[in-house]
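Q: What structure does this chain adopt?
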Amino acid sequence: MKLNQIADNAGARKARKRVGRGIGSGLGKTAGRGGKGQTARKGGAKAGFEGGQMPIYRRLPKRGFNKPNAVSYNEVNLGQLQRAIDAKKLDGKGAVTEAELVKAGIITRVMGGVRLLAKGEIKKALNIEVFYATKSAIAAVEKAGGSVKVLRPAEEPKQA
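A:
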């Protein structure tokens, strides 16, 4: 084989359409874009416009509610804490607080607080200070010989 004998397979390259080259070409005048106005422009029809019919997003009822003062929490699993201890990023001395978790790289930034979840396994006794902890997470930490301090204020009973 020589360099001058190299060629693509038949049909591998398709010739581009030459539009706007006279009516005899079949793609002259409007060049395949139809008539004038909005439909001839790039982007086509307005998104969600149904030709004057009441659009579906207005026909269907509104549902749900976005809480304006919603608080986002950092969620930390027990397995993440154990991996940080194994990698020597987190030492078990003293209280494990939100600032310690940021320094260890377990969470990226401080949000509304830390939620401790029970996914994974913890082997070292830790004194953890979090905003919220599941019952199973507390039980797992206490089983390993540690303690969990929940910083969230106790909810007051609702009055009828």
